[in-house]
Every structure is written in C-alpha cells, then in structure tokens.
Specification:
17 helices, 604 residues
Length: 604
C-alpha cells in the first residue's frame, strides 16, 4: 500500500493535494492511505513524502520501513496559478521529455524530472518538480480561470489555451504514467514488498474508447427551406463537387422523401457490423424560428419518427442521454429537459453534454448533481480534436475557490458528476462551408490519438454527429476504419454510461493488503475484474471457504481456473482475473515466493 505523508506547512492546500492524490492513485488503481504519524506506517508500505523540505537520511530510514520511498517537492504557488502574473506564469512553463515532450510548471532547474538513489537498504525516488500542483492545475482547469479571452458564447478559444501546442498529448496521463513506472521498478527490484493494481479496464484491455453521437441537426425539409437551399447551392456553383453533391441529395429527397441528415441507419449498420454500442445525445429544446444564432436543435421529440428511433436505440442497449440547450449554460433548466427525455427512454440514469462546449462549470456542476446526471461529457477543444487539459481518463471535476469545496474525498465523489472529456470529434474536420480536412489527415489524426492513449491504458471519447455523415463525405469510411481498428486491437468499447458504471464499480472494490495476504471485497456485480501484483510474489494461493469447513489453501498453476464464492478466478503470471463476480463477494488470496527466492533486495 502507498502511505502518503503531507507536511504540516502544506495544510492550507490539503484539499487540493488530497484531491490530486485521490485522482492519480484511483486512476492508476493503487491502494493508499494518508498518514500523519510514524506509527501508521507498516513494513510493507511504500511512503510518499510531499512537502517543502526534503527529509534527511535519518528521516528517510525512519519513514521507509520497506526500503522504498518517494519525495515530491511542493511548489504551492501553482495551486493558485490562476492568480499569477501572466509574464511570470509564462516563464514557469518548461518542456520535458517522457514518452512525448510535455509541459511542466516549475521554477526549478534540473536535468531529469526524477532521480533515483540507492543508498544501502533504501530505494529513493526524488522528483525535481511538483507533480501534485502540476496535475491539479490541469484537473481543476486553472488555465481557463486565468484566461481573459472569451468568444460571443462565453467560451475560452483554443488559441487562448497556453498549452494548445500539446493538444495531441494526454500529458496528465503521462505524469501519472511516470509516477507508476517508478513504483513498478521499485517493487520489482527492491525490498520485501508488493503492490496491487486494479487494471484500468475489466480484462486489462490496452485502452478504452467511448463512442457517441451528438444529434444537433436533422434539418427536415420545408418548402421554404428547400428553395432556400437551392439558391445557396447556385451561389456555390463554382465549388463543383459540393454543388453536385447537394443537387444529388435534393433530387434524392424529391424521389424518395429521404431526409439528407437522417443517417441513423448508416450509423446503426456500422455499429451492428462490429457489434459495438454507443451513446446518443438528444436535445429537447427546439430553437424558435425567431432565434438568430440557431444554436439549439432543429427538431422536436414529438416527431413520431424520432420516438421510434429513440425506442430502437434503447431496445438495442445503446445509451440515450441529454444534449442540453444553450440556455443551460447559465440557467436552471436541466430538470425539465431531463424529464422530457426520460419520457422517451427506458432508464432514468443518464448523462449530459452541453452543445458547442458552452459550459459554465461552477453552475453546471451544481445542476448536474442536483438532477442526478451520472456523467458530463462536455470538456474538449472547440475547433480541434485532442486532449483538453491533457486528460484522457474519467475524473471528478474540482471547482477551485467555491464555498462548498470538498471537505472529504468520499463525500466529494458521492456528490459529484463524473467528467468524461471529448477527444476526437467530427466538427474539427470541418474547416469552412466548403472546406474539409483531407481524408488522409483525418485518418492520421485518429491513429495519432489512439497511439497517444495506448501506453497509459487511457480513454478516448469520440463524437460523430449523425448529420455530419452527410456533411463530411468520407466520415462513413473513417468511422468504419475506427471501428475496425479498435475491434482488432481488443479495446474496451462501451457507451459512456457503461464507462461511468465500470469506473465507479472498479474504484468501489475494497482491497485490504496484509503482510502476505490480500482480502478483496466486491460490493457490486462485475462481469470482469483484473488485478496485477508487482513485487516479490511468485505464486498465489486461494483461501476457499465455500465448503463451510476449515480454510483450504489451493495452489494455482499458470492459466488454471478455479471457482471460489461463485467467482471464476484465473491466474496468468502476476495477473489475477475475476469473472462473473456477484455483489457482496469476498476473496482471500495468500501470496508466496519460490523457496529458493531470498528475502530482501533482488539483483537479477
């Protein structure tokens, strides 16, 4: 287990520090505890020391009973970086190379971001920058709070993001990855210690992908609208390909009554081909004819054809959630909109997405929690695909400086809505009325984002609007290629609601680590769950209590499966896989080593 000690001098920022540790370690899947006294440290605990002053050798040995310790120096000013002078702030951004070149906030000078010292019986990692304040800055979106730029919709333009040049890199994930690599190396090479990790996804898939479709426009033709469209086409007659395409669609509509934006069957056929499910975001607030900006949806759920489509999506186990109105940016309207959509679906649990990234975090978070939305998938760039704030995993958003800032992390999770950022979306492929990113560049972008999340088992959230299968001629092929690639690579592909449920159930599993034994409690049903053990164990023994007799130890052979407490357990090296777990199940596992394996530091 990881034991976290925070210096008293950092008490002012304890909420921010605990929030960031919580986010990092739950994302990575490790057990941890916060300590304030030396007697709370056990011999198998890896100690994380966070503070202003590095401990000396004597203090290190008193703290690191297992021989492994990490020191992270605090640079507390970055917890309030939104208040820093812009010129001073710019001078603190420093690029460093991990898997990619990523930005760090620091005033320190160093050659390597992390040094490792081996001092007799001590394996000691020393960070040369403040990992916690760096991660918090992005998780809390402090860069948005710093910005003085806003467009007509009160959004922060992509150009105002000081980290926009790193848009294609999930740099917060890489910071977490860097932290984990030290833990794995330390547990593998040093000391009589082990670490247990929940894998990010149920069967240790290489990455996860959430497919979604924002239904913002359907444009049912009226006589006036049809004639107006013909005039616009004539004005664009010199764009030969576009003119021909639009003329063909209008002729097709006259001949078949097939609406040009109703591509539901196209999307459905592709997803059935690859046996995947997705999330559909439906709006309930139809824009008025007098509305100049035409920001809200142009359809009504009272349309019988739409009701049939929504029913079919529910019956085929897709996720149907709310595309909020633009008024939800600053008004308490989500309750009525959710209620209206709930009348068309078979479930009450749903997520929300704000259109055009027009979100007001301070107010919207309150509304999301009040009306019990299970997730919010709004955060993302406005004009380009990529990782806004460098994040490619679900997380609970922290709103700085608000009166109800979390007093405890358990309460914070209970009364919060999971955030799932959007990373790849089709609107970023549209350059102008007639201009599009080339099909080759779109394919390259898609592959680049997948490659970026794979080393960290991250999450890629995609949004392909149903209407854009008309607007972007190659989108059907691009979506087909995406589905083929993620299926071939065995990614964890689920709708957003399923991703949310998995993330919460995964983090709810309780793992008690004793000296040479694990006790695992599953409060919820789980189809699959996987643990990895790093450190000294070479084999596992399951304590089988299902017979009601005395405990029996069962030694596992690699790849062998055993049923315990109605759960199928399979061991593959240092990986333990659980299948068909029922709620309220407890499993105990003893950890062992080969008889010839000595205790203490390993040298192989």
């Amino acid at each position: 287990m990881l034991a976290i000690y925070i210096e008293r001098e950092m008490a002012k920022y304890r909420n921010e520090v605990e929030y960031t540790f919580e986010c990092m370690l739950r994302t990575l899947g490790y057990e941890y505890k916060f300590i304030s006294r030396l007697n709370q440290i056990r011999k198998q605990d890896v100690v994380l020391y966070y503070g202003l002053i590095e401990p000396n050798i004597a203090e290190l040995r008193a703290l690191a009973l297992c021989g492994i310790m990490i020191y992270i120096p605090a640079e507390p000013e970055f917890f309030q970086a939104d208040r820093m002078d812009p010129k001073d702030f710019a001078g603190c951004i420093r690029p460093v190379t991990l898997l990619h070149t990523i930005p760090l906030l620091t005033r320190r000078s160093f050659e390597a971001p992390l040094n490792v010292l081996m001092h007799e019986d001590l394996y000691y990692g020393i960070y040369n920058f403040d990992l916690l304040s760096n991660a918090f800055f992005h998780l809390a979106a402090l860069d948005d709070h710093r910005s003085t730029s806003a467009d007509s919709l009160h959004r922060i333009p992509d150009s105002a993001d000081r980290f926009v040049e790193y848009a294609k890199i999930p740099y917060v994930n890489e910071l977490f990855w860097m932290f984990e690599q030290f833990l794995i190396e330390a547990a593998t090479q040093w000391g009589d210690v082990y670490l247990v990790k929940r894998t990010a996804w149920p069967q240790d898939e290489p990455y996860a992908i959430a497919l979604s479709h924002s239904i913002s426009r359907l444009q049912r033709w009226t006589v006036g609208g049809f004639l107006k469209g013909c005039v616009i086409d004539l004005l664009n007659i010199f764009y030969i390909r576009r003119f021909g395409r639009e003329a063909y669609r209008k002729l097709l509509y006259l001949a078949t009554n097939e609406e040009q934006y109703w591509n539901f069957s196209t999307v459905k056929n592709l997803e059935e081909k690859y046996q995947v499910r997705s999330t559909y975001f439906w709006g309930t607030k139809k824009r008025s004819k007098k509305e100049k900006n035409k920001l809200d949806v142009d359809y009504s759920l009272l349309d019988n054809d739409l009701a049939e489509i929504i029913t079919d999506q529910c019956n085929t186990d897709h996720d149907v959630s709310l595309l909020a109105s633009t008024a939800a940016y600053n008004n308490d309207v989500l309750e009525n909109q959710k209620r209206e959509l709930t009348g068309y679906v078979s479930h009450k649990q749903m997520g929300v997405r704000h259109p055009l990234r027009r979100s007001n975090p301070e107010k919207n978070l309150e509304y999301h929690n009040r009306y019990h939305f299970v997730y919010d998938s709004t955060v993302g760039f406005i004009e380009q695909s990529g990782f806004k704030h460098g994040i490619a995993f679900p997380y609970f958003q922290y709103i700085p400086n608000r009166p109800d800032a979390p007093k405890g992390m358990a309460e914070f999770r209970k009364n919060n809505c999971l955030q799932i950022p959007i990373n790849l979306f089709d609107e970023s492929l549209i350059l102008s009325t007639v201009g599009r990113v080339s099909a080759a560049k779109a394919q390259e972008l898609m592959c680049q984002l997948i490659e970026a999340v794979t080393p960290m088992q991250g999450l890629l959230c995609c949004d392909f609007g149903v209407h854009n299968f008309t607007e972007i001629t190659y989108l059907e092929k691009l979506y087909n290629d995406l589905l083929e690639q993620i299926t071939t690579q065995n990614a964890y592909v689920r709708p957003l609601k399923d991703i949310t449920h998995w993330w919460k159930k995964r983090n709810a599993v309780v793992i008690k680590e004793k000296r040479h034994e694990l006790e695992i409690y599953f409060p919820d049903d789980l189809e699959h769950f996987t643990l990895k053990v790093f450190g000294f164990p070479y084999f596992f023994q399951i304590i089988d209590t299902t017979t009601g007799e005395s405990e029996q130890l069962r030694l596992f052979s690699p790849g062998e499966a055993l049923s315990v407490e109605n759960t199928k357990i399979t061991i593959d090296g240092a990986t333990i896989h659980f299948e068909t777990v029922l709620a309220d199940t407890r499993i105990r596992i003893k950890l062992g080593r080969k008889p010839e394996e000595p205790h203490g530091r390993r040298t192989e």
